[in-house]
Amino acid sequence: MRILRAADYRSMPWKNGGGVTTEIAVSPAGAGLDDFDWRISMARVEAGGPFSVFAGIDRTLSILEGEGMRLTIAGRAPVELTRASDPLFFPADAATDASLPAGPITDLNVMTRRGRARHGVRRLVLAKPFDFVSEAATTLLFCHQGSIAIGESSPVALDAHDTLWLDGASETLRLVPQPHAILFVIAIQND
């Protein structure tokens, strides 16, 4: 179990040069945009336009801040994504265009390389203690809002934008919101 603090995340330019992303975690450690197995990041999106294309990558996008984004993926009907929406899974190598009908947003982006890893993302709103068990090869709990005490004897605090990284199946972890929290649970399996 590791805690990744928001203050320690690394910022870098987008692949297409259109903005800046904050890398939360990447595997293998130190991997770049062309050789990661999986990657989790946040990005501030100030204007609409085409997404960077990542060959052989699947991605899931969630809105953290702002009113939302409209995505057109591979010419299909547009999808509206808001803070209340479920995380949206789609291929990162499909032509994707975004518009921001109500202004800038910040998103959470999870990407895995097909043939090496796959992922699932779910959003949890916690208002009372919750017992969590990880069953994936790697699980990351990203605290979007609020804070959480993890464990009962000598609890560890997870504050807004901090991440708990778990490798392998875990024993039950007691998550206690302080007084409430929104978490994204990112489960990664190796192929």
From TrEMBL:
CDD domains (UniProt xref): cupin_HutD_N
Q: Name one Pfam family in it.
A: HutD
Protein's UniProt name = HutD-family protein
